[in-house]
Amino acid sequence: MSVRALWILSHEKGENVSIRFTRRFATVEHRAKILAGSSYRAVPEDNTVLQLLLTELGLSDSDKSYVALRDDCLHRKRLPALELRVDGPGKGFLWPVLAISHGPLTLACLPLVDVPAEPRPPLASLLSVSQGLTLLAGLQTFLLGSGGKPDSEGLASRLAMLPSVLLQVCPLGTPLDVPLVGAPATPTVPTPAGNQKQPAWKTGLHRGRAVVNVALIETVRSMQYGNRSRQDLWDVYGTVTCKCEVEGVLPNVTVTLTLPPNGSPLQDILVHPCVTSLDSSILTASSVDNCDGSAFSGPYKFPFSPPLEPFRLCSYTSQVPVPPILGSYQLREEENQLRVSVTLKLHESVKNSFEYCEAHLPFFNRDQMGVVDVKVSAGQLDVSKEKNLLIWGLGQKFPKCREVTMEGKISFSGQTPGPTDPLCTELTAYIKLYFKVPDMTLSGCCVDQHSVQVYSSAKPRIVTSRELQSKEYFIWNSTGTAPVASGQMML
């Protein structure tokens, strides 16, 4: 259910009737136009709607006891769903215009009806009618309070809050909630100073405990060939994701990234549109440029006004001297057997503490696995003969020497053929590594918890984390033919 338009009218005794608040939702109106087709009727100007509502509700023409447009016996009024007949070119009607009145206020809305208007469907069958009335009742309680007769200052204060309230309970014209019953006449969060307005992209305000969560994830790819005639390739891609639950319309937050003294400068930096200002030297570094000592090496400050939902604050690339795990893979075919020899070595700069680490060795385009006589120096080996796959679980730590090996023979004597793959033909085989290392990054980049600055009325709890993970991390058989990666590897 969605709302095409919303009106709030004031009709105090002795005062002229006026529109105190109006809101139209262009995206919902576009949907209404598509659904109605040739029978579409645009919503008139607010003054026209005001006169039609007053006439239909009997609040105008007080000197006339009979108004044909309203009192004719052929006109069947079905409250609270009014039918407003519109004059002028393309005559038609707006239906169902929902209206409720209490005290000095009348609230009305035009919900989107997604069924044909003729023949007129029963009101009880339209979910949009019940939801529209629920929205109006909630807004009425919010504006008038539990007593139903707020003073003029209290009503003015609540009407001023209404744009922010609608962004929260009815973003883009679709009701998600109703305002709290008996809400106080003053805002429960600090009101913005001056003329600061709720931005259209921010659909609500946070209420509750303030928490800022910043997560830095670096992803490494690698293509290792074990061949002097072919250069190994690897790259590192980092992302900083934030979730900021901070009070205020446009709170200010600053996240700072730092590098170790000998760290390589971050490159190819992209930032979220909510970042308010940025040093131009941060954006000039590119991976296609030659790195020199003049490159900006931090600290990298990102001031921003966050949306409510989690978002990617920035991304970057980094040039590191070596991949985290260096591997050697050799396959030699002997009759109907393969002799397997694997060595994996964890680089000394990498923290020897994994959340998980696995090496997958597929053997496609062959008969099904038969006898597997393979030994590993560390970890556990799982054999999946149906998939022609060896899964080497290395656990959470490499041994103290930081090196593990696999040696053995595999025969393929099954009665049925195994899986096929165009990239793994005969000796064109590979190892694919899957790992995650918590609390470290390959570039050394980090977010210091104490460097996160939040300018808000409430002091937030700051949570930061970082991790290194693999993606498309291949070690190819050095005795076979492997694909050549064209150009620079990019994630």
TrEMBL record:
<protein>
    <recommendedName>
        <fullName>AP-5 complex subunit mu-1</fullName>
    </recommendedName>
</protein>
<dbReference type="InterPro" id="IPR036168">
    <property type="entry name" value="AP2_Mu_C_sf"/>
</dbReference>
<keyword id="KW-0813">Transport</keyword>
<dbReference type="Pfam" id="PF00928">
    <property type="entry name" value="Adap_comp_sub"/>
</dbReference>
<feature type="domain" description="MHD">
    <location>
        <begin position="209"/>
        <end position="476"/>
    </location>
</feature>
<dbReference type="GO" id="GO:0016197">
    <property type="term" value="P:endosomal transport"/>
</dbReference>
<comment type="similarity">
    <text>Belongs to the adaptor complexes medium subunit family.</text>
</comment>
<keyword id="KW-0963">Cytoplasm</keyword>
<keyword id="KW-0653">Protein transport</keyword>
<dbReference type="InterPro" id="IPR028565">
    <property type="entry name" value="MHD"/>
</dbReference>
<dbReference type="GO" id="GO:0005829">
    <property type="term" value="C:cytosol"/>
</dbReference>
<dbReference type="GO" id="GO:0030119">
    <property type="term" value="C:AP-type membrane coat adaptor complex"/>
</dbReference>
<dbReference type="InterPro" id="IPR039591">
    <property type="entry name" value="AP5M1"/>
</dbReference>
<keyword id="KW-0967">Endosome</keyword>
<keyword id="KW-0458">Lysosome</keyword>
<comment type="subunit">
    <text>Probably part of the adaptor protein complex 5 (AP-5) a tetramer composed of AP5B1, AP5M1, AP5S1 and AP5Z1.</text>
</comment>
<keyword id="KW-0472">Membrane</keyword>
<dbReference type="GO" id="GO:0015031">
    <property type="term" value="P:protein transport"/>
</dbReference>
<dbReference type="GO" id="GO:0031902">
    <property type="term" value="C:late endosome membrane"/>
</dbReference>
<dbReference type="GO" id="GO:0005765">
    <property type="term" value="C:lysosomal membrane"/>
</dbReference>
